[in-house]
Design goal:
single chain; about 200 residues; mainly beta; 13-stranded mixed beta sheet; 2 helices; 13 strands; about 10% helix
C-alpha cells in the first residue's frame, strides 16, 4: 500500500559552524564525531490507510567524523500521543522499512539503540523553533538571516542530498540540552524546513 507524510523539519548537530555533513555526507564534521538530532513534525500524512497527521518522530544519531564511513548509532523517539497502530506505521516509514528517503540511509546504520515513546512538543514561532522530547531533549533554534538582507528571509542551503529535502534553512541553536540513548552533546549548528514531503 502507498503512504505519504509532510510537515516541518528541525535539526541540530554538534558541529561548531554550518554542518559540513549536510552539504555532503562525504565531508567531515568539525569535531571528531557528528552527533545530530532529526525532528520530523508531521502535519499531515496517511500510511497504509492510517492517519498520522499531528504526530512527531525524532532520531538521535551518533556517527564518525565522515558520515559515509557508516557505523551510525541511532535511537528513535515516537510521539506518545500516537496510538499503537500509528506508532507502528510511523516506525515503518522512519526506519526505512516501507521505503522512502530513510531507506537510503539504512546501510550506514550499524547499531539501532531502540525506540522510545515520549511526549514531544514542537513550537514554531517565525524564525524560532523549539523542541522538547520528554526529559531527553530540549532545544531551540533560530533561522539565520544574513547581514544586509532587507526582506528578512533566512539563508538557505540548496542542491543537497538530505532526507528532509534538497533545500534547508540555515539556523543556529540558541538553547540546548540533549542526552538520549546514551548520546549527549551541546547543539550548535542547525537547520529547518517548513515543507518536507515524502511518499512511496
Amino acid at each position: 500500500m502507498s503512504w505519504n507524510v509532510s510537515g516541518s523539519y528541525f535539526e541540530t548537530c554538534s558541529c561548531n559552524v554550518v554542518c559540513a555533513c549536510t552539504a555532503s555526507l562525504s565531508l567531515g564534521a568539525t569535531l571528531d564525531r557528528c552527533k545530530v538530532t532529526l525532528v520530523f513534525n508531521v502535519h499531515s500524512g496517511d500510511i497504509e490507510g492510517t492517519d498520522v497527521g499531528g504526530l512527531t518522530v525524532a532520531a538521535i544519531v551518533d556517527t564518525p567524523k565522515v558520515m559515509t564511513d557508516g557505523n551510525w548509532r541511532v535511537g528513535v523517539f515516537i510521539d506518545d500521543a500516537a496510538s499503537d497502530q500509528q506508532a507502528e506505521k510511523l516506525g515503518g516509514v522512519f526506519s526505512g522499512a516501507l521505503g522512502g528517503p530513510m531507506a537510503a540511509l539504512g546501510p550506514l546504520i550499524s547499531e539501532n539503540l531502540g525506540v522510545q515513546r515520549a511526549p514531544i512538543e514542537v513550537r514554531e514561532d517565525g524564525l524560532r523553533h523549539s523542541i522538547r522530547i520528554g526529559d531527553a531533549v530540549d532545544f531551540e533554534i533560530e533561522d539565520v538571516v544574513s547581514f544586509g538582507v532587507e526582506n528578512g528571509q533566512p539563508a538557505k542551503l540548496t542542491g543537497i542530498f538530505h532526507p528532509a529535502g534538497s533545500e534547508l534553512t540555515v539556523a543556529r541553536a540558541t538553547r540546548s540540552k540533549i542526552d538520549g540513548f546514551g548520546i549527549a552533546y551541546e547543539a550548535k549548528a542547525a537547520f529547518s524546513t517548513s515543507n518536507f514531503s515524502w511518499s512511496a
